[in-house]
Inverse folding.
């Protein structure tokens, strides 16, 4: 592990069949409408997936609609400007900096902030390469 102390690789496996289960009654258009409605409320793609799973019984949006949530949002012009994982890393770094302003002697937080910011730089480098972020985008810790 590069940034965590764990050694595990536990994860859930996606079903082999790509067709939606027989018990899913929602049509593809209904799922797309719900996704757009939830995105307009301000939910992130992950939260939209969880809401669809828990409230509407949609196990995998991809199997029902043929497209992932972010692709549907991009098609409707509702995609977030920053990728979700990068946004939450930046949010974490900002809260850590705020903590460090109050607690200057917290050496462990300082070290963890360095790890989080290196993760941000690594992720930003990837997103610039795949053109999800503009080539001039730069993470500035002050903002």
């Amino acid at each position: 592990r590069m940034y965590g102390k764990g050694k595990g690789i536990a994860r859930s496996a996606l079903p082999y069949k790509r067709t939606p289960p027989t018990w899913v009654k929602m049509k593809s258009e209904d799922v797309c409408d719900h996704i757009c409605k939830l995105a307009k409320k301000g939910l992130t793609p992950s939260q939209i997936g969880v809401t669809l799973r828990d409230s509407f019984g949609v196990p995998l949006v991809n199997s029902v609609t043929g497209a992932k949530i972010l692709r549907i949002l991009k098609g409707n012009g509702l995609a977030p400007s920053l990728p979700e994982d990068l946004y939450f890393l930046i949010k974490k770094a900002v809260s850590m900096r705020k903590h460090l302003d109050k607690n200057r002697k917290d050496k462990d937080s300082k070290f963890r902030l360095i790890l989080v910011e290196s993760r941000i730089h690594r992720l930003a480098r990837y997103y610039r390469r795949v053109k999800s972020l503009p080539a001039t985008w730069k993470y500035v810790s002050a903002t």
Q: What stands out?
A: The chain has a mean pLDDT of 92. Helices lie at 28-41, 45-56, 61-65, 69-75, 84-102, 107-129.
